[in-house]
Amino acid sequence: EVQKLSQQLEEKNGEIQQMINQPPYEKEREILRLQKTLAEKEKAQATSDVLCRSLTDETHQLQRKLASTAEMCQHLAKCLEEKQRKEKGNSDDQIPRERSNQVFLQLLHNETSLQALICNLQEENRMLKQKVAHV
């Protein structure tokens, strides 16, 4: 391991000596190339930061929307229960109960879809953050 590191150090020293021995115009060209590369990486980092912030904001917005939808589902479920109690008192008809169950199942499906969407966005956000860290 020490020999390997020593060899790498010698290689880097050789590269440094080679750059020192280069004519000034080649040094300037290398500096310009490195500055251009740095500018591109900074631009990519800024773009990535903006995308991450945007995804984070969208994730929070979807979480609030999901909470609101869940609250609405609970409210509708309570309303359906009250309606069923009233209808049960008036009649033992099964059709309204089946209809309310269908509505409730549809609302539950919508909530599940939103949760899946949030999970997907959170995963995408996590992957973008990993890419940003890698860059």
Automatic annotation (TrEMBL):
Tagged with keyword Ligase: no
Keyword field contains Coiled coil: yes
Residue ranges, compositional bias (Basic and acidic residues): 1-14
GO biological process, one term: cellular response to lipopolysaccharide
Region spans: Disordered: 1-24
Domain of life assignment: Eukaryota
GO cellular component: a single term: cytoplasm
Keywords from the named record: Coiled coil
Protein name listed in UniProt: TNIP2 protein
Record organism: Toxostoma redivivum
High-level lineage: Eukaryota, Metazoa, Chordata, Craniata, Vertebrata
